[in-house]
Design goal:
Blueprint: H1 3-26, E1 32-33, H2 35-44, E2 54-59, H3 63-73, E3 78-81, E4 90-94, E5 97-100, E6 115-125, H4 128-143, H5 149-160, H6 163-178, E7 187-191, E8 194-200, H7 201-204, E9 208-212, E10 215-219, H8 223-231, E11 250-253
Parallel strand pairs: 2-6
Antiparallel strand pairs: 1-2, 3-4, 4-6, 5-11, 6-7, 7-8, 9-10
Helix pairs in contact: 2-8, 4-6
Length: 258
């Protein structure tokens, strides 16, 4: 993929973002820039020069509202891909492009265009992290490659006694009990499908705006807190050339694209 292709791709993704933002604003749904898109806004006031995707977040409580709005209001040039086994979050895809990662092939009847990822986040009491870390230790023990007698005994206790299944059900109940729809000083916000990533609620809310490609978009209250958590304290420094990865190996813009 050459630089001209990348610039065309970034323009298409920015147009998708604008459509999503219009729909969010019309339906009173909060969204905010996240991950590499937030990093790009802070460090470059736009795309990271080599980046080929856009990431935004919404709260889980707004998920159904957003899906309903997108189904009704997206233009014909865009396609809503709902969560599935491969991608457990929303993708809004361009119908007039093809974007393939390494090893991917063109599949007839499937939209494989450029897209924006829409991640959902949930609000919890920070107490849930203690339970989550304990549950994670159990999961890691189950898959740990260690032939020691102690580890073998742990596996027997966890798998054969049904302890792991019991803990999984308990954790789901705890999630419901520790879930908050209102925020306070003890609240954290967790990526719905990435439980190892979470932020303090007061680092995100109330939202503010930031410049991205000469337009204003919503972003976390303290973007520096989010970026340090995701990328480390040196997030403003450019990575070495061999670390500047892209998602797509091939991007093709079709004739019907604007």
């Amino acid at each position: 993929m050459n630089d001209k292709n990348l610039k065309e791709a970034q323009k298409i993704m920015k147009d998708i973002l604008k459509e999503i933002v219009k729909i969010c604003d019309r339906n009173n749904i909060d969204y905010w820039l996240d991950s590499g898109t937030l990093l790009g806004a802070v460090r470059h006031k736009g795309f990271i020069p080599w980046d080929d995707d856009i990431d935004i977040c919404i709260l889980k409580q707004d998920y159904l509202k957003l899906v309903t709005a997108l189904e009704k209001e997206l233009p014909q040039t865009l396609y809503l891909q709902k969560p599935n086994k491969k991608w457990p979050y929303i993708k809004v895809k361009d119908k007039n492009s093809i974007a393939l990662s390494k090893g991917e092939k063109v599949n007839e009847g499937e939209y494989q265009g450029l897209y924006i990822d829409v991640f959902t986040m949930e609000i919890f009491s920070k107490k849930i992290i203690y339970f989550y870390n304990f549950f994670l230790k159990i999961e890691r023990t189950k898959f740990k490659q260690n032939d020691s007698k102690i580890n073998k005994l742990k596996k027997v206790l966890i798998i054969k006694t049904g302890f792991q299944k019991y803990m999984s059900k308990l954790f789901q109940k705890l999630k419901l009990r520790l879930k908050n729809n209102t925020m306070n000083s003890n609240s954290i916000v967790i990526y719905e499908y990435l439980w190892n990533k979470y932020h303090k609620a007061d680092s995100i809310f109330p939202l503010k705006t930031i410049e991205f490609e000469k337009e204003e978009y919503k972003c976390p209250k303290k973007p520096e807190d989010i970026l340090i958590k995701l990328y480390g304290k040196n997030y403003l420094e450019l990575p070495p050339l061999d670390k500047r990865g892209r998602h797509f190996e091939m991007i093709k813009i079709l004739k019907n694209s604007k």
